[in-house]
Amino acid sequence: MEYILMYKIIAFVFFVALSFFMYKQSRTNIKTDTFGIVIILNGPSAAGKSSLQKSIQRLAAVPYLAIGIDNFFNDLFPDEHGTLGVKADADFGNDLRCVTIENNIVSLHVGQSGQKIIKGMHAAIAGYAKAGNNVVVDYIMYEQAWIKDLLKQLQGCPVYLIGVTVPLDILQAREQARSTSPIGHAASHYYSVHEGNNYDLWIDNSQGTPDDGARKILDFIQQNPK
């Protein structure tokens, strides 16, 4: 009887130890291959990032969710709140985002409310990716701190940072034709949007079609797995 009791005690202790070990493994050893791929298309307004997004979704062998900065600023609010407008003064403390024009110089501002939206957008992108979804993001880095925060949120995920560029004169022509944002908006961040970024790949979106750019991105990801 004593041997049977001892055997049961040893078996119970072993079971508890094994259960604890498996629990710790499940908490600490999260494999990155369970996370989705994140493609960040960063570039100025009117650079054709949304067209690239659609081509990537259509041509990729696996599904990609499309998330963009305009989804959060424009699509979640009534027009009077979400639309990017022009202000005559610099009192933009609580605004989502706006532009001011002074001496023919267009400047873009993101107020406190807009900064909170950006924080939430980054958390949403990371949430989708860490749940196993592939995500392609239409992004405009208005401030350098933004991309740092996004990459921090995406730690552990395979991330591909793509710089999307178009000559300024082409951007300005597109901006006038589209009439979806104030004239001068694209020029206001044309250079700063790429400042300090270490891109995996550059796409000149004035060359070829969106499908050409999407194939280049998808081929790069296939050849350079993370």
TrEMBL record:
The keyword Transmembrane helix is annotated on this UniProt entry: yes
Leader sequence segment: none
UniProt entry keywords in alphabetical sequence: Membrane, Transmembrane, Transmembrane helix
Annotated TM spans: 6-23
Keyword Protease: no
Molecular function as annotated in GO: ATP binding; transferase activity
SUPFAM superfamilies reported in the protein's UniProt record: P-loop containing nucleoside triphosphate hydrolases
Binding, ATP: G43, P44, S45, A46, A47, G48, K49, S50
Organism: Candidatus Chromulinivorax destructor
Name of this protein: Chloramphenicol phosphotransferase
Residue numbers annotated as active site: D70
